[in-house]
Amino acid sequence: MRDPLTVLTDAFTSFLFGKVETTRLPVRTSTGQAQAVYLPTAAPGLGDSGVIIGREVYSGKGYIYDPFQLYGQQLPAPHWLVLGESGNGKSALEKTYVLRQLRFKDRQVVVLDAQGEDGVGEWNLIAQELGITPIRLDPTAALDMGIRLNPLDPAITTTGQLALLRTIIEVAMGHGLDERSGFALKVAHAYVNETIVERQPVLTDIVEQLRHPEPESAEAMNVAIDDVRAWGLDVALVLDRLVDGDLRGMFDGPTTVGIDLDAPLIVFDLSHIDRNSIAMPILMAIVGVWLEHTWIRPDRKKRIFLVEEAWHIINSPFVAQLFQRLLKFGRRLGLSFVAVVHHLSDVVDGAAAKEAAAILKMASTRTIYAQKADEARATGRVLGLPRWAVEIIPTLTPGIAVWDVNGNVQVVKHLITETERPLVFTDRAMTESSSDLAADDAMRAAELEAEERAAYMEQHAG
User: SUPFAM superfamilies in the record, alphabetically (predicted)?
Assistant: First the structure.
């Protein structure tokens, strides 16, 4: 029962100054009951098995991702698409992800390194740290006993060799082979494989056979020998470019001895290749088939195939079809394909839009760094991102990205340990983003926690 004087005083005060705030008594409760009042603001994580990426921004909890652990449960496919403009952290994410995956004993990684400075690719430091020599493909160096990859290497099946030859020619010509040209190539390839047994057949042998076909090949189809020669002329001219033209040196000899396909990390350094020239898709085709027939094996290893500047692959219909087959085939043998692209419009508006859509559909994981608003909206439409994610993409700061793992969408801050930092950032990158790299005390503690977690996983790997 309230004091009458207090009641009178409150009434007079309310009349002069308005209604006073109601006094509420404190309530004691448990966290189990209070969770209905304070609702969660972040989606559930992806589990605690795999490699740590960083910290989920809204909840502050660790973000762990591994396509091999999630495949078949939360992921229909282990393939991954990374998008974003330069300077926002794509390269750092790729490198730390690979370094952390390699802590497990059953992992193997191939990287197509298309960027670099000072005459070497961006992955050169990491390769050196792991005691690995990158496979540096350079037309000039190849003439001086540099690295060669032979499309007719006996390690590749005869069917794979013929498919590779067709892809090389179709990429260079910009259209598919007609039946007559395809027949001339098939006949020349069969003859070379049957007659050259004392050494590795090379492209020069194919060119020579196309120019001078055997009479038996004409008789088999009941056509004149001059017709077979004419059918194979354009094919011979295209292959001659790899033998004696501006692309000579990389593919016109036996495969270089000493390429270690059992190394935990294999780096193809493509930084000396003009990424806008026809050499790049031709090179991608050769490397793709070569890996398909010599690297991917049913040995229970989990393999990661990371391709920078991946739009050079997807933008060519013939090469995109080849890699689409590689993805479908490799998924059964534990292959995770990681494609790194600056803008999705480079792919979906390119010459291989149909093939690009099929490859994108196989990428169940999508990581999107900062993009301009119009690009973010276009990306959201193609990938089916929720509206809130599309709206925040233009506002993301370096190192923070939207992760969409088969519909589980979260915002993640990538963390880099002190051990990884000198391997991940080049001098140029350090200069451009020095303010972002100066972490505060809280970030430093989080990085140390990530490093301790990585060391724990290494200790218990395998």
Answer: P-loop containing nucleoside triphosphate hydrolases
CB 348 within 8 A of CB 375: no
H or E element in which residue 190 lies: helix 179-195
Range scoring the smallest mean pLDDT among 47-61, 152-166, 267-281: 267-281
Residue ranges of alpha helices (H) inside 18-123 are 31-34, 67-70, 90-101
For residues 269 and 114, give the distance between their C-alpha atoms in angstroms, rounded to a whole number.
7
| End-to-end alpha carbon distance in the chain | 72
Beta bridge partners of 141: none
Of 22-26, 213-217, 226-230, the poorest mean pLDDT is in: 22-26
Between the alpha carbon of residue 275 and those of residues 110, 230, 382, 444, the distances in Å are 19, 33, 26, 38
Strands 62-65 and 120-121, sheet pairing: unpaired
pLDDT of residue 438: 40
Mean pLDDT of the chain: 80
Nearest Cα to Cα of residue 403 among 445, 454, 431, 368: 368
Q: What DSSP state is assigned to residue 249?
A: T
* Residue boundaries of the structural domains of the chain: 51-147+261-459, 158-244
Q: Using the CB atoms, write b or e for 224-253: b if 16+ within 10 Å.
A: eeeebbebbebbbbbbbbbbeeebbbbbbb
**What are the DSSP calls for 363-391, one per residue?**
EEEEEE----HHHHHHHHHHHT--HHHHH
Judged against a pLDDT cut of 50, whether residue 225 lies above it is answered with yes
Of 289, 306, 328, 327, nearest to 108 (Cα)? 306
In whole angstroms, give the CA distance from residue 249 to residue 272.
13
Are the CB atoms for 312 and 306 separated by under 8 Å? no
- Provide the pLDDT for residue 270: 83
Q: 111, 124 in Cβ contact below 8 A?
A: no
CA pair distance 335, 77, nearest whole angstrom? 10
Q: What is the pLDDT of residues 90-111, one digit of tens each?
A: 999 999 999 999 998 889 999 9
Higher pLDDT residue, 42 or 427?
42
Distance, CA of 100 to CA of 87 (rounded, Å): 22
Of 457, 373, 388, whose CA–CA distance to 43 is shortest?
388
d(CA 428, CA 425): 8
Which fold is adopted by the domain 51-147+261-459?
Rossmann fold (3.40.50)
Question: Tell me, what's the pLDDT at 15?
Answer: 56
**Mean local confidence (pLDDT), 314-333:** 76
Q: Are the beta carbons of 370 and 394 closer than 8 angstroms?
A: yes
User: Residue 101 and residue 154: Cα distance in Å, rounded?
Assistant: 31
